[in-house]
Amino acid sequence: MRLWGGRFSGETDDRMRRFHDSFGFDRRLYAADIRGSVAYAAALLRAGLITDDERAAIVEGLGQVKQEFDDGTFEPLPGDEDIHTAVERRLTEIVGSPAGKLHTGRSRNDQIALDVRLWLIMSIDQVSALLTGVQSAIVDKAEVHSGLVMPGYTHLQAAQPVLFAHWLMSTFWMLERDRDRLADCRRRTAVCPLGSGALAGNPFAIDREALAADLGMESATPNSMDAVADRDFIAEFLFAAALIGIHTSRLAEDVVLYTSPGYRFLSIGEAYSTGSSLMPQKRNPDSMELARGKAGRLIGDLVSLLTVLKGLPSTYNKDMQEDKEPLFDAFDTLMLTLPVLAGVVGTITPHAEAMRAALDEAMLATDLADYLVRRGMPFREAHHISGRIVRRAEERDVPLSALALDDFRAESDVFESDVFTVFDFDSSVARRAVTGGTAPEAVAAQIDAARARLSSR
Ligand code: ARG
Question: Of the chain's two ends, which shows fewer C-beta atoms within 10 Å, N or C?
Answer without folding.
Answer: C
